[in-house]
Amino acid sequence: MALSMKDRELLLATSLPAANAVREQLNEYLARTGLAYSDFARRINYSSVTLRFFIKGRYANIASNDAPLRKAITEFIAAHPIEPVTQAGDKLYETENVQLLRQYFYEALDDCRMIYVHGAPGSQKTFVLEHLTAELNCAEVSKNGHGRRAYYVYCPQSVKTSQKIMREIAEACGVDTTGDAQRILKRLRFEFRTRKVIFILDEAQHLNYECLETIRGLFDRMPHCAILLAGSHQLETTFMRDAARLEQWNSRLHFGKALPGISDDEADTIIRQELGEKVTSPIVRKLITESKALDVRRSGEHNYISARRLFWSIRDIKRAIEKRQAKKEASA
After folding, report:
1. Helix (H, G, I), strand (E, B) or coil at 168
2. I need a labelling partner for 160 at 20 to 30 A (CA). Which of 170, 196, 242, 320 fits?
3. In angstroms, what CA-CA distances link 121 with 203, 204, 220, 292, 304?
4. What is the distance between the alpha carbons of residues 102 and 92, in angstroms, rounded to a whole number?
5. Where are the transmembrane segments (predicted)?
6. pLDDT tens by residue, 140-179
7. pTM attached to this predicted model
8. What residues have CB less than 8 Å from 230, skipping those under 6 apart?
9. What angle (nearest 5°) sits at the alpha carbon of residue 173, between those of residues 252 and 205?
């Protein structure tokens, strides 16, 4: 015989303390990650309706036993903890671009500075900054409570308000994203009160005056977090065009060099290391030529090697070689 609603409520009452603890844990996790109920439900193979009933304390509408759902929630949170990024991507070649970004990254962090660097699309900004973020966090992760931390934040074009940019920053840090910009700012200042922290804001040319002024609060007030802005040449134009309004920024900001892009010699070294020393010089020259891009935003016309194009071309050649090898083995 099917259980009545009252019977289900009585059965669920026995696990109420455990259910309340899981609900609190889940709500905190959702607030800090920015995941919606529906996103989380899909990841644990439950419907969003079921999860909402559980969160609202009305699981008796669904079933008389919430143990499997509680188990799924706690296991997912344990398997996907909120923590700084510590895994770097592919191999990082020490080009001039990389050396400059590494220099500015640690200058900002160690000396508590606000620095900005700019370069054309494909000049390795994103990949290198993500790699440096993971590199630092991996080295410092064992210093629980006091280790330095780096947080990479991508700034999309849609971020046009102080609340939106602070939510992006909080989500990158695993901090509660709810509330207005000032409330999130206070949370971040409290969270990092015992640490040296650097925020890397990539595609910073998308940030308007309101966003920049809000971000300045992370630098000006305790614990005085370091800020590294990275973007296209438009970022430099923004600070020059709005110099009067951004006088507080300009008085604090250290201007880094423009990233030069990968040189022909650096590209030659990368290609030979990726494809092997037997690769012919004509193929190397062809790859370098195909990887050239035109930067019209600099004075005159400037050609540079796009790292993105270069590594895509190398990847395509590797795949072609693998296919030929597989075909040869299959026919043998």
Report:
1. helix
2. 196
3. 10, 13, 30, 12, 10
4. 11
5. none
6. 877 766 788 999 999 999 998 999 999 999 988 888 888 8
7. 0.77
8. 101, 116, 117, 118, 119, 125, 126, 129, 200, 201, 202, 203, 204
9. 45
